[in-house]
Amino acid sequence: MTRRRRRSAAGRAVLTVVTAFGVLAGAALAGATPADAAPVGKRIVPGVTYRQFDVEAGAGRTHAHLLTVDLGNPHVRVDLLHPGAVAARGTVSQMADSSGAVAGVNGDFFNITETQHPGVEATGASVGPAIADGQVLKAAVPKGQRFGPSLPPGTNTQDVIGVGTDRRARLDRLSLVGGVDTPEGRLTLQGLNQYALPENSVGAFTSKWGSASRRRSVCGTDSQRSAPCSTDTYEVKVRDGRVVSATDSPGSGAIPADTTVLVGREAGAQQLRKVSVGDAVTVTHRLAAASSGVPYAFAIGGFPVLRDGTALSGLDNVTSAVRTVVGFKDGGRQLLILALDGAAAYRSGMTVAEEAGTMRSLGASDAFNLDGGGSTELVTRDAGASAVTVRNHPSGGAERPVANGIGVFSAG
User: Fold this and answer.
1) Fewest CB within a 10 Å sphere: which of 63, 226, 367, 390?
2) What is the CA radius of gyration of the chain?
3) What pLDDT score was predicted for residue 41?
């Protein structure tokens, strides 16, 4: 739920963090999904702690759930939670349980609905780039095709928070670099497992996409998500380096591991029509980091709100909502994962600007906003338990299936 109200300059500046000892009041949680409160600093596993506290925000008191992850602990790691395909959704608890995570939180914004394109399937795929276990899953959709609140000035859909193979967290930007070599020449690849392709482009879909229809990828424009679907499209299937089929419309169904599906729209479709069945075609793609020379073991999309201890300019200080945010301190050696509670007593939440201030008050040098509202969910697994427990109260009254999340894993 979102609440809008204007604040004075003084009100915007004051955030008081109040540590909550004991449990949440039962009356305040009446009718909500059960959540077990925890004392301050409860250890989940060595290197991972969980606590709760209240935050005095402009819209009222809200309640936060915080995971602190010591990335310097060799037995602890973080990775992407996902349901096994880019174009799929699962609840955070389902994804955490299936992967063996000891804790987790929801992730990136995603293609949640297609009411503006009747007959077109909502894919459930996330907005930004995604890397899991060092493997690239997808690239970012055009800025005008994203779901979620307005981006802060100077940010875009390629922004990520990730952890490198050096076990350090950092903010970065991941752009797609790729091409399609054909007998007619080389085409620039401008999409990888994305629910929306740039206008006039060619994009690739691999087995990681899943079985969802690829029709959504040619709908909307670079500046308007609700624009009609393109009528000039073409799809080519490449198996073991050879074109095996071609059609005028994007298809659906699982893609075999030895197959890449190329989808073109407008000028991209016209380029693909020059390719014939039997032609030799080579498709290459990777995500290039803007600032880090260290490969990423994990990365997820959203948008930055705090960088080098300073809140980004232009952060929304009007719209209060239940939010999820992840940050880091100590040079990226400690990860802070925060989710607000969606119980009726607390769901007024906070603004993006207040979110940045809260993370800074917790010691974070950098912070990154993830999907919020009904998607916000944080889970942990008690020692010896076979399943995780949902620690916050999802604002919709139940867990929402989401595109991905951040999982915390322990080898010890």
Assistant:
1) 226
2) 22
3) 76
Distance CA(45)–CA(35), nearest Å, equals: 19
Q: How do residues 21-63 score in pLDDT, each as one tens digit?
A: 223 322 222 223 334 444 457 999 999 999 999 999 999 999 9
> What letters, b where the CB count within 10 A reaches 16 and e where it falls short, cover 229-243?
bbeebbbbbbeeeeb
- Please work out, in degrees rounded to the nearest 5, the angle formed at the alpha carbon of residue 15 by the alpha carbons of 10 and 20: 150
Sign of CA dihedral 230, 147, 140, 242: negative
From 267, 268, 232, select the one nearest 248 (Cα to Cα). 232
Q: What values do phi and psi take at 373, rounded to 5?
A: 60, -130
Residue of 387, 388, 389, 400 whose CA lies nearest to 342: 400
What confidence tens digit (pLDDT) does each residue in 322-376 have?
Answer: 999 999 999 999 999 999 999 999 989 999 999 999 999 999 999 999 999 999 9
Beta strands in 185-318 (DSSP E): 185-188, 191-192, 202-205, 233-239, 242-247, 259-265, 282-289, 296-301, 303-307, 310-311
CA atoms within 13 A on the CB side of 352: 24
Whether residue 1 has pLDDT greater than 90: no
Residue 102 contacts residue 412 (beta carbons within 8 Å): no
Chain centroid offset of residue 27 CA: 33
